[in-house]
Design brief:
Elements lengths: L3 E5 L3 E7 L13 E7 L1 H11 L6 E7 L4 H9 L5 E6 L5 E7 L7 E4 L16 H9 L5 E5 L10 H11 L3 E5 L2 H8 L5 E2 L3 H8 L7 H15 L3 E5 L5 E5 L2 E7 L3 H5 L7 H15 L7 H15 L10 H8 L5 E7 L4
Parallel strand pairs: 1-4, 1-8, 2-6, 4-5, 8-9, 9-10, 10-11
Antiparallel strand pairs: 2-3, 6-7, 11-12, 12-13, 13-14
Helix pairs in contact: 1-9, 4-5, 6-7, 9-10, 10-11
């Protein structure tokens, strides 16, 4: 039986173009073009697999009917314990990523709105609710990742969180906007916003600096009664707020390592993946916040050195785990502060 669930309700095909010396406004040839069937939960599942958790993980994906086979094939390679791919609209939305290895701003992302989905997919007893209900059980931690598609009710994540908790499981929410706010009303076990999402949620700007970011994580816990907040801020690191206080971690890469970064897509998903593995298989880390923060930062950093979101560079993961790429961790607010 699975102890981890990864749910994607708004899948996307990511078309990656490698264009050295990319110049906007000109006709250019791509050196390479690769299409990846992904989505935030799919990237999360890929990272879980690279962390050794595939055999304990079940995956649910809602995509276009013409792409069901592609997702089944891609997910089948990782030998997950179960894969449930649901066909919704005719096609899956497509994003474009332009990678320019010669530029300091090496990656450009072009995202598009999603396609309308039949409302029948999301009703009680419908395919989405039924698929998530099958995953939920005592001891199972389930990530609900990404935006909701057009046609899904704003409160869908809240309903799924309530279903998961009623069956004894735990939910981790990684979304934004109104689905995030509505989902938090159902009190998930953990939530993973980035700085911009946290500012929108709290309805005020977050000042620069570790203390301000940590304060925002604490405010989310106090206002929404969640157990864990994983608040990411790109290269400025990660704040983890939970039962043992609020802590901050930052990876200290060399200039050469920073210059060899391939793609920043999937880093937040990799944080969620690492938390799922810790919650389900390494629960002792939830009692050791400094080790937890260090562990949570290893996966997204290794993700930076792989073109496909959620695929972790084994070489860099080993460097991080051995301490050859340092991670600085500090306590911002202790448990009783």
């Amino acid at each position: 039986m699975a102890s981890i669930g990864c749910v994607t309700l708004h899948a996307v095909i990511d078309d990656n173009y490698v264009i050295p010396g990319f110049r906007p406004g000109e006709t250019q040839r791509a050196l390479e073009c690769t299409s990846y069937p992904v989505g935030k939960g799919v990237s999360c599942a890929a990272a879980v697999a690279d962390l050794g958790g595939a055999a304990q993980t079940a995956v649910v994906v809602l995509c276009g009917t013409t792409d069901v086979g592609s997702y089944q094939k891609v997910l089948g390679r990782s030998k997950f314990s179960a894969v449930d791919v649901i066909g919704g609209p005719e096609k899956t939305r497509r994003h474009v990523t332009i990678i320019d290895p010669k530029s300091d701003a090496a990656v450009t992302h072009v995202q598009v709105p999603g396609l309308p989905h039949p409302a029948a997919l999301f009703v009680p007893g419908g395919p989405v609710m039924a698929a998530v209900a099958r995953l939920a059980a005592p001891g199972v931690t389930i990530a609900l990742s990404g935006s909701l598609p057009s046609g899904a009710p704003t409160h869908l994540y809240a309903t799924l969180i309530e279903t998961i908790r009623a069956k004894g499981g735990k939910a981790v929410l990684d979304t934004s906007g109104q689905p995030l706010r509505a989902g938090l009303e159902a009190r998930p076990f953990a939530v993973k916003p980035n700085r911009a999402e946290a500012e929108a949620l709290l309805e005020h700007p977050i000042e620069k600096g570790t203390v301000a970011l940590a304060s925002a994580g604490l405010e989310i816990i106090e206002r929404f009664d969640v157990t864990w907040v994983l608040l990411s801020d790109g290269a400025d690191g990660l704040v983890v707020a939970g039962p043992h206080g609020v802590h901050h971690g930052k990876v200290e890469m060399s200039l050469a390592q920073k210059e060899s970064i391939v793609n920043d897509q999937g880093c937040g998903d990799s944080v969620v993946a690492a938390f799922l593995v810790c919650a389900s298989q390494r629960s002792e880390l939830l009692q050791d916040p400094l080790r937890l923060v260090r562990t949570l930062l290893q996966a997204p950093t290794a993700n930076l050195f792989s073109q496909r979101p959620g695929n972790l560079s084994a070489e860099h993961l080993a460097l991080l785990q051995s301490g050859q790429i340092p991670i600085r961790v500090e306590t911002v607010f202790p448990q009783n502060g």
